[in-house]
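Quick question, first post here. What does this chain look like in 3D?
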Amino acid sequence: MTGRHLSAGHYDYDDFQIDDWFETVYATITEELIDRFADLTGDRFAIHIDNDAARALGFERRVAHGLLILSLIDGLKNQTEIKIKAVASLGWEWRFTRPVLLGEIIRARFTVEAKRLTRDPSRGIVTFAVEVRDQNDEIVQQGTNNLMVLTKNYSLN
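> Answer (accepted):
Ran it through. Tokens below.
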């Protein structure tokens, strides 16, 4: 692993270097999470809400929604001790590489892949490469997230 393992603190655009990285805490995929996501989104596809339907399609048990995992990862990022002085997420490029099943445990690693200033000197864009891994350390989702971040030039005036 190259780059700095970031320690707890507040980070603006200028603080990040290419290959800097941090990891989130773990999250267990529970029935409650899957059911609440299905209720919230209306995505009640059978493999998400019924073990028998999931088994009939070749899975051991219910499969978490791919977007549930992505949503959890974004939340876990914001719960770390790495406090990014972010303005907004500008989007995700994302792939679901393996299913995440009920009861599995996930975490993510965020690595600074690129950065560039915007026309506004108070803001820059940091691109994070993201790998989501399960309890067996296998990648289940991966992609990038572009995040608009304040620079040291930011002023409330």
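The chain has one domain: 9-150.
Helices lie at 31-41, 46-49, 51-56, 66-79.
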